[in-house]
Amino acid sequence: MTRQQLWKQIGTRLNGPYALDDARQIVEHVCSCSHAELLANTNTPVSRREQWRAKRMAAKRARGVPMAYLLKLRSFYGRVFFVNRHTLIPRPETETLVEEALAISTPDLIIDVGTGSGAIGVTLALEQNAPVIATDISRSALRAAKRNAHRLGANVKFFHSDLMDHPRVRATMHQARSIVVVANLPYLTPAFLQDSPNEVTKHEPMLALVADDKDGLCLYRRLLKQLTAYNKSLSILMEIDPRQLKAARSLAYKQFPHAKVHTTLDLSRQPRVIQIDAPSQA
């Protein structure tokens, strides 16, 4: 069997408008070849082991396992990140959070709270010069984040922490004057989650998706309350669901009544990032 024959065979086993593209990615993965190499060498024979691996991956894909988990890779902000079932799959809309953080000039410190795969924190470390620290409550997610930082050459300090409770995180914050905090925390409710595709609800970690059964903002409430203890120049950026805009802005003003709060739209023109700029009161 050739690569082209395997590609077509796998494609017939998959469903949906992207079946052939998914099949192509599977063949490229098992044959360790690029898209260009696949097209240039379609008649190259594939081994029995490569056929077995491709068919096994196709069976999982047919059951709805996301391609990112099958390949253990996901592109984000021009780089490829390792992902697994312990990490949320980075979304294109989250790049809005990164872009807004990069637009803030010369902070002393950047903190990525709830780093997951490390996509946000690692990207920020590679795109600017301020030191970056990242936290997560999941040790499994932190292992993935550290792997990404090492592979991409990013200098990020990681801490196993419930939000910002780690003493070394607090100590580092006390030493900085201006701090950027980025957070893509779980913000869905069970009701919001029902609108998500099966790939998300059945395969991505609930710990990284669902916050509470009220408004989905319980973790952001805790985070903002923690941050009110620091008399620093703070820029806090939080990714939200567009349906949470009013509640999230109200929460921001409640915790930081004198701050400037504004909203950034994602590529779909949906409200995606709440930014709170709170100057030091010193």
TrEMBL record:
Keyword tags: Methyltransferase, S-adenosyl-L-methionine, Transferase
GO biological process, one term: methylation
Superkingdom as given in the UniProt entry: Bacteria
NCBIfam families documented for this protein: hemK_fam, RF_mod_PrmC
Protein's name in the database: Protein-(Glutamine-N5) methyltransferase, release factor-specific
GO molecular function, one term: protein methyltransferase activity
Domain Release factor glutamine methyltransferase N-terminal: 19-71
SUPFAM superfamilies the record matches: S-adenosyl-L-methionine-dependent methyltransferases
Chain ranges of the Methyltransferase domain: 110-173
InterPro entries: HemK-like, Methyltransf_25, N5-glutamine_MTase, PrmC_N, RF_methyltr_PrmC, SAM-dependent_MTases_sf
Organism phylogeny: Bacteria, Candidatus Uhriibacteriota
